[in-house]
Specification:
- This protein has 230 residues and is an alpha/beta fold.
- It folds into 2 domains: 123 residues, Rossmann fold, CATH 3.40.50.2300; 93 residues, Arc Repressor Mutant, subunit A (Orthogonal Bundle), CATH 1.10.10.
- 41% of the residues lie in helices and 22% in strands.
- The strands form 3 sheets. It has a 5-stranded parallel beta sheet with strand order 2-1-3-4-5, with helices on both faces. It has a 4-stranded antiparallel beta sheet with strand order 6-7-8-9, covered by helices on one side. Strands 10-12-11 form a 3-stranded antiparallel beta sheet.
- β11 and β12 form a beta hairpin.
- The longest helix is centred in the middle third of the chain and has 18 residues.
- The model has no long low-confidence stretch (mean pLDDT 88).
């Protein structure tokens, strides 16, 4: 692997720690200590993924994320946010702005490298839109709106089907409730946060043995368990 990873953090010790573990794993790394430098390096080096600390001097990480995702030339770069433990509002805002994942400080370098692998894999897979998703015995046919577990057809409402497609289509990615509301917009006239929770509860019940594949991220939203396609 030779993907370039941009590390953005104002703490040099953290930057060096992340650099060491990523380069040990075969990645090329570049670094920035503030938001302005991060934007400049993103333009010149076009990294595949950016590890972005939220608490930066001057332009904070959320603003950097917003600018990256609003620039068509830079928006393809995946983003993993580094955030202080318990900062749920910042995590939610970052995900809404387009960040792909987050890691809370203090973190395990091995976990961060695993997240990098995961996000890059999801990003590559996202470029291939599949009409049929298969997760073990669970089959989701996006062409005819049919869901099966084994040979049994699972009767889902259109709202439940859209939620399942959104989550299972990007396994491992955390979606805020607002993002899920946007995904099913047009299915219902009025949708609120708690409505999403009700639909998720119903969806889990119908998924039976696959119900635990939908994971609640407390205070933020939901994600679908990662799986390896055969």
């Amino acid at each position: 692997m030779n993907e370039t990873i941009l590390i953005v953090d104002d703490e040099r010790d953290i930057v060096n720690l992340i650099m060491y573990h990523l380069e040990k794993d075969g990645y090329k790394t570049i670094t920035a200590l503030d938001g302005e430098a991060a934007l400049e390096l993103s333009k010149s080096e076009r990294p595949a993924l950016i590890i972005l600390d939220i608490m930066l001097p001057g332009m904070n990480g959320l603003e950097v994320c917003k600018r990256l995702k609003s620039d068509e030339a830079l928006s393809d770069a995946a983003i993993i946010m580094l955030t202080a433990r318990g900062e749920e509002d910042d995590i939610t805002r970052g995900l809404k702005l387009g960040a792909d994942d987050y890691v809370t400080k203090p973190f395990s370098p091995k976990e961060l490298v695993a997240r990098v692998h995961s996000v890059l894999r999801r990003t590559k897979n996202a470029s291939f839109k599949k009409e049929l998703l298969e997760i073990g015995d669970l089959k989701i046919n996006m062409d005819n709106y049919e869901v099966k577990i084994g040979h049994d057809v699972i009767p889902l409402t259109l709202t439940e089907f859209k939620l399942l497609c959104q989550l299972a289509g990007k396994p491992g990615r955390v979606f805020t409730r607002d993002q899920l509301i946007d995904a099913i917009a047009g299915v219902e006239t009025i949708i609120i946060d708690r409505t999403i929770d009700v639909h998720i509860a119903s969806l889990r019940k119908k998924l039976k043995s696959f119900k635990n594949h939908i994971i609640t991220i407390r205070g933020i939203g939901y994600k679908f368990m990662e799986w390896q396609a055969c």
